[in-house]
TrEMBL record:
This is SPW_0924 family protein. It comes from Streptomyces xanthii. The lineage of its organism: Bacteria, Bacillati, Actinomycetota, Actinomycetes, Kitasatosporales.
Length: 44
């Protein structure tokens, strides 16, 4: 029974955190126009 209560408290805390982050929204800013390199260029 204690495990069920602990799981419910953890789930409620996680849900509260998600709702808080959703309410705050994404930080303002802009993305860089330069592409990111995902691989190391080969020296041929």
């Amino acid at each position: 029974m204690r495990a069920l209560i602990a799981a419910a408290i953890g789930l409620a805390a996680a849900l509260a955190l998600v709702l808080t982050i959703t309410a705050i929204g994404a930080p303002a800013g802009k993305t860089s126009p330069k592409p990111l390199l995902t691989t190391v260029p080969k020296h041929v």
